[in-house]
Write a sequence for this structure.
């Protein structure tokens, strides 16, 4: 009897270990929903709108993956995570993927055991100050009080920047973007620092955005991208190529407007392979042939997502810059669909 | 007729383990123990297997790597190149700081409120009731956040102190600056400082001890020792002659003259806060986060302590009050000399658990960005190194040690004041 208990325990342990390691794609299909980790609220990247519907650039990636896997861009359970909780949520399997403007770094990739599947926004850390302070460079910030989201790479960059420039500062650690905004607007800190895109998004929600300036210094490289757990390459491939499908679609001129006629077949074989009218790329991923078509139809191609959520026509007003297609001199580049 | 029968042989059979009441309870306990240990082993084994699958076998080497982040409130010297271990130590000190400050304030407020709630003055008693019910019935996290929001939104920013006609001015003859970044108070400085002693070299646990402080404490200790001697002598004279010599001037002199001379020798002066650049410089900066956390924790815990104190006082028989009044004692003295000492015996044990609660509640510090040990070791360090299991285990160990230490001290005190039965 004792023996059976021991063996039972071992079996359960083995099963639990096995379940944690593989099969995210099957799990998502069986569940019928994708659990996607996003920010607790950063307008333009991921924030619920007036109807409680999650909107934004990172949300677009989640929806594209859900559409590719399940055929339904609405089949996403958004899990808001803070800078501190996001990695635990992903590592524990609470979420299937994380699309939360997370910087791709060596230690996160290697030591924390995550797989970054690509970069959907090339960013860098900047500073925002009220115009009335009269500061024109980050190097003039000696002695300033700096609001910073805790548990992020920005925290480390900030320490390095002030240290290497031999100036002092007073950090005010803050849990979420909303709290940082409150403290910054009340003047409890002189400076707010985070990724430049996040600063632009935050400034756009201010009553008077023109009273605040972004300083010219960008003190770090912050390639932001979606990530999954190590050890499930099949699932990593699905997320990676869903993102690549959006990028390739923009490069090849496939938009949510013309995708219907293009899916019927074109004389460009790469478009045909992408949209599934030729070849069997979907099958290789374990998805149906129309996976990329669904992903693109979810919110448009990469360019459409960018323009619709954070581009120059939105209040956030970010220029494409580094995030232009490689054909336009940017860094956005997808490996070929072949 | 007598028959001699041999007493039954105490032969042991296996079935007796279940059917014999002498052994049954032991059998059950042994089985339960084995079951529990198997369950614990399974849990640990499961965790280890899963962590190994993830490639994250527990190890503590990360503690010796550079932390890379800054901490605003530092009780010891620290910079971003120090190790995670040192960052944790600073966090631990911040936790202890707010816990000690909180316990002291909560006790003072709690005892006051508890006594006042029993006041015969209707308004005072009702106000105290309202206070107790309000604080006790709202989660402490909300009080912390509210305190922080009030401090940030209602106090002036440093820039309001600037210019020809500033919107805000410093208080108390320009010595204290109350801003929404915290309160700046004058700090003690010594122009002929004796310096610091550096202990533990360059290790992560190094700390400095101010020789000035040690000298001051020694002199103060000697003064107090002198005062007790003077008082003992006065008591002796009173007991032999019935007349008590005046000791007030001797006591005051003993207390102030030696310390005053020492401070003068060390060149004691106050460093005042001054608006320089973005912030006030100089003086001691009590950050908003500390004040908010301290206030909220103290007021919240004080509400519970007030109820304990009230219960303790009510537990002392009314006859004691009547007896004291019959002896002609005024009500203040009755409370102080007769009721409270007896009430203490009832008050101390539940007080221990309130101190423990306050200490553990201080882990909500991250809500206002106070860098306690949950914020450093359990927050940034955990996040930057990804060692969840290790950091959380260490965190639990820290709180366990703090709590057990508080319990130990309070139990020792409880044993001293409890009723000695002869």
């Amino acid at each position: 009897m004792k023996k059976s208990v021991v063996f039972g325990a071992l079996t359960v342990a083995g099963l639990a270990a096995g379940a944690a390691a593989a099969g995210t794609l099957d799990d998502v299909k069986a569940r019928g929903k994708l659990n996607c980790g996003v920010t607790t609220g950063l307008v333009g990247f991921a924030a619920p709108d007036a109807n409680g519907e999650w909107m934004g650039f990172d949300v677009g990636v989640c929806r594209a993956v859900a559409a590719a896997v399940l055929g339904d861009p609405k089949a996403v359970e958004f899990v808001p995570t803070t800078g501190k909780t996001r990695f635990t949520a992903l590592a524990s399997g609470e979420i299937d993927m994380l699309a939360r403007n997370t910087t791709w770094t060596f230690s996160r990739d290697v030591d924390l055991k995550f797989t970054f599947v690509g970069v959907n926004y090339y960013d860098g850390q900047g500073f925002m100050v009220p115009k009335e302070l009269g500061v024109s460079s980050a190097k003039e910030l000696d002695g300033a009080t700096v609001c910073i989201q805790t548990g992020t790479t920005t925290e480390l960059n900030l320490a390095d920047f002030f240290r290497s420039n031999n100036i002092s500062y007073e950090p005010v650690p803050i849990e979420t973007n909303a709290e940082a905004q409150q403290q910054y607007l009340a003047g409890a800190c002189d400076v707010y620092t985070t990724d430049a895109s996040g600063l632009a998004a935050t400034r756009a929600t201010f009553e008077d955005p023109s009273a605040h300036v972004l300083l010219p210094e960008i003190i770090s490289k912050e390639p932001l991208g979606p990530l999954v757990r190590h050890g499930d390459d099949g699932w990593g491939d699905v997320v990676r190529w869903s993102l690549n499908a959006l990028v390739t679609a923009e490069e090849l001129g496939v938009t949510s407007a013309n995708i219907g006629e293009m899916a019927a077949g074109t004389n460009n074989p790469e478009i045909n392979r992408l949209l599934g009218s030729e070849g069997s790329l979907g099958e290789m991923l374990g998805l149906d042939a129309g996976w990329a078509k669904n992903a693109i139809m979810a919110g448009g191609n990469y360019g459409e997502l960018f323009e619709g959520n954070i581009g120059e026509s939105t209040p956030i007003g970010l220029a494409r810059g580094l995030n232009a297609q490689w054909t336009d001199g940017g860094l956005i580049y997808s490996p070929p669909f072949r | 007729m007598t028959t001699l029968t041999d007493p039954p042989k105490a032969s042991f059979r296996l079935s007796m383990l279940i059917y014999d009441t002498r052994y049954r309870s032991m059998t059950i306990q042994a089985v339960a123990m084995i079951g529990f240990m198997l369950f614990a082993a399974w849990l640990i084994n499961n965790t280890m297997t899963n962590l190994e699958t993830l490639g994250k076998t527990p190890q503590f080497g990360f503690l010796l790597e550079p932390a890379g982040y800054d901490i605003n409130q530092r009780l010891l010297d620290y910079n971003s190149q120090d190790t995670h271990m040192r960052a944790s130590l600073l966090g631990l000190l911040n936790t202890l700081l707010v816990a000690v400050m909180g316990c002291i304030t909560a006790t003072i407020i709690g005892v006051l409120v508890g006594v006042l709630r029993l006041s015969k003055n209707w308004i005072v008693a009702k106000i105290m009731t309202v206070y107790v019910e309000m604080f006790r019935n709202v989660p402490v996290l909300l009080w912390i956040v509210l305190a922080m929001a009030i401090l940030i939104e209602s106090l002036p920013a440093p820039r309001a102190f600037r210019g020809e006609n500033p919107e805000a001015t410093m208080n108390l003859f320009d010595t204290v600056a109350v801003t929404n970044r915290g309160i700046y108070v004058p700090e003690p400085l010594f122009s002929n400082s004796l310096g610091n002693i550096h202990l533990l070299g360059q290790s992560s646990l190094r700390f400095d001890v101010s020789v000035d402080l040690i000298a001051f404490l020694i002199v103060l200790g000697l003064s107090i020792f002198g005062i007790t001697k003077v008082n003992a002598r006065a008591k002796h004279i009173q007991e032999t002659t019935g007349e008590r010599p005046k000791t007030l001037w001797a006591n005051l002199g003993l207390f102030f003259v030696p310390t005053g001379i020492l401070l003068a020798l060390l060149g004691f002066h106050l460093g005042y806060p001054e608006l320089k650049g973005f912030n006030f410089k100089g003086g001691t900066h009590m950050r908003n986060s500390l004040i908010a956390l301290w206030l909220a924790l103290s007021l919240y815990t004080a509400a519970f302590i007030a109820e304990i104190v009230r219960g303790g006082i009510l537990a002392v028989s009314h006859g004691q009050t009547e007896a004291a009044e019959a002896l002609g004692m005024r009500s203040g003295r009755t409370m102080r000399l007769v009721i409270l000492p007896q009430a203490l015996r009832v008050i101390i044990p539940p007080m221990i658990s309130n101190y423990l609660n306050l200490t553990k509640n201080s882990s909500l510090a991250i809500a206002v960005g106070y860098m306690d040990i949950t914020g450093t070791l359990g927050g940034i360090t955990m996040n930057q190194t990804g060692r969840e299991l290790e950091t959380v285990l260490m965190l639990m160990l820290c709180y366990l040690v703090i709590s057990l230490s508080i319990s130990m001290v309070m139990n020792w005190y409880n044993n001293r004041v409890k009723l000695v039965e002869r």
Notes: Chain B has a mean pLDDT of 88. Chain B is about 60% helix and 10% strand.
